[in-house]
């Protein structure tokens, strides 16, 4: 009689680490880990030795020293007596300003150009093709310095606006002056201002919250909330009775009237730029460097966005439109319920990665002297303090944070619009 | 009754189509003036084209090809009578005539121009078996393999033993790998091969080159890196970065797709870090920090440092492109390779990579175009690429104030290169579009 015996228990042998696929992956990972640690240790020990030899141990104390350089385009108050930390903060805000402005303009331009490139008008389609190929195939840095040169060389100097035989004049009812030193636009002013809240006292991170702006935003937000409540009520009534009450004027009124009232109460008016002495005074001054960077980044990125939009529209098959109209949907409903949701699924991920590229390209501001975070922290602060390691690592960290937050948004969006497959 | 016919019995002669639907008029009606909105767009575009051409053409066609300086150009223009309200209006092409060769080669010694030219001609020869695989014999691939060692030698010059020592490192690594993997496991082979090659490059090859150079000094005149410039520099950085980043990118992409958790996280961390920071910060690292990361006393060339950082930059993007190709392959291909009993590397080499690389060619070309355009950034850290040279040329008293001609020339050159490459990638895409239709 035979008995079934268990297969002999295999003893673990050292050679199984190499030949047995069950253990080999662990061996490879351990080797990779050791190699990685060795590399890191080598780099760190080199750095430590070099820094010791230079007599510059890692030290972030320079952040509290006075920066003693000026930043001409800024959102918050800043003077050359402020610290390097504040200079870096101003630079970061400048980066974000040009990135946000650029993304908005690039999207608008890109959508228009992408749609026009699909136009059945031969000449318009060709022109847009030339635009896209022309901007995509020339480096963005060249566009930035080129547009900067155009602004400086071709626009009138402030003195051309003066006198009886002025060769240049202000635009839009004497409210906007376009000069070779930048663009002067009106600024919003409040004669019955509520004042500001100071945050963070006198430290490098201090900023003011304008109570006027806060009040306007609160009233506007409340108006929008009531308006959306009215829309939901109209939806409900439509579902119950089949008739939709006309609410557009109520919805408009609850937004516009209170906001307008608040503006009047605060004494809202515009401060216009005026020519005084050799330059314009008053108003908001957008410098050439900002305008050139903004324009160049928008025009360059718009060429890429145009291609994305074109691809997104072409990706939706004609059968979708036909099926939707066979269901009896009207053309605007077809667009908003059938075409756009599908096209956006194709368009949005590459669109966001282009926003990311635009934000990273904004670091080229240093070529035209716009003081963004690269110009302040990675430029003058680095040169003045001689702290290359600290400033550049921090600079990378800042950009990495911005990029990772944008890609987190992208992943969240991708997850939410992903086709729910069986 | 019978003489009244309601049915025509004979064919009518063909009539001409209406004049408004055929010929140039019909085409214009259909494509330019099909409705009022299109008509407005057409007229607006025509006006825009007219305005741009009217502003640019008289400027472009200016008789200043022989101008010796900006003032000389202005005199020529004044004599020709093209004077606008802001002084003379017209391009000063003399700067291009005098400096175009500098914009191409930088300050490279003029008697040695044949070397970069030969290097780029040989580049075309080395690329031919890769690009036009159906019409070039595949034996040429041997030359393509040797080319990475010829290229730097031709550009930088110096002793011939340097590139030979570099090549010997690869040979040594390969020999150790194949010897060890025959007797022991291939894993040990890879590790020992890498260790042997690294030991050769970092420790032994210095003595080897020094000894052989003193016995048998074969070499060509060395050229310093700071003499490199112009489009030669841009193309060098672009080509080296792409050539080195392709294998690195493949390794990173495979690492990111792999099941080994530690390997995967190292690769993901590297890729996301490089892709998350702008190239300019990496170039700052090259210009200020890289020497701090190296052993004390190391001081290597700025162009080499830039090449390292641009290669790392390109390899992260390349990894993502190749990962896209890997992800696009149907799962059946992996399973088919497994069912044939191929191991991981055999499957990658024979089944997966040929297909994945083919799918990702358009992405690889567009990465290359991107890197080539980004080489202009090196002007910010003081290298003399075309944009940096344009500043250097303006520093000359003769050409102080020349802006548009230089930018226009540089932009045109970049446009020709990049547009040509993007057309080539579209051709490849059509050619390689086999199956799965």
TrEMBL record, chain A:
| ABC transmembrane type-1 domain sequence ranges | 92-410
Membrane topology according to the record: Multi-pass membrane protein
Q: Does the keyword Cell membrane apply?
A: yes
| The UniProt record lists the keyword Transport | yes
Concerning Pfam families, the annotation shows: BPD_transp_1
State the UniProt keywords alphabetically: Amino-acid transport, Cell membrane, Membrane, Transmembrane, Transmembrane helix, Transport
Q: Where in the cell is it found?
A: Cell inner membrane; Cell membrane
GO biological-process terms attached to the record:
amino acid transport
Q: Which domain of life is it from?
A: Bacteria
Identify one Gene Ontology CC term for this UniProt entry.
ATP-binding cassette (ABC) transporter complex
Q: Cite a single GO MF annotation.
A: transmembrane transporter activity
Residue ranges of the TM segments: 23-44, 87-116, 137-155, 209-230, 251-271, 291-313, 334-356, 392-413
> Which InterPro entries does this chain map to?
AA_ABC_transptr_permease_3TM, ArtM/GltK/GlnP/TcyL/YhdX-like, MetI-like, MetI-like_sf
Report the sequence similarity comment from the record.
Belongs to the binding-protein-dependent transport system permease family. HisMQ subfamily.
Q: What is the protein's given name?
A: ABC transporter permease subunit
Automatic annotation (TrEMBL), chain B:
Sorted alphabetically, the keyword list is:
Cell membrane, Membrane, Transmembrane, Transmembrane helix, Transport
SUPFAM superfamilies according to UniProt: MetI-like
Q: Which Gene3D superfamilies match?
A: MetI-like
What does the record say about its membrane topology? Multi-pass membrane protein
Listed Pfam families? BPD_transp_1
GO MF terms, alphabetically ordered: transmembrane transporter activity
Subcellular localization, as worded in the UniProt entry: Cell inner membrane; Cell membrane
Similarity-based family: Belongs to the binding-protein-dependent transport system permease family. HisMQ subfamily.
| Stated name of the protein | Amino acid ABC transporter permease
Originating species = Ruegeria sp. PrR005
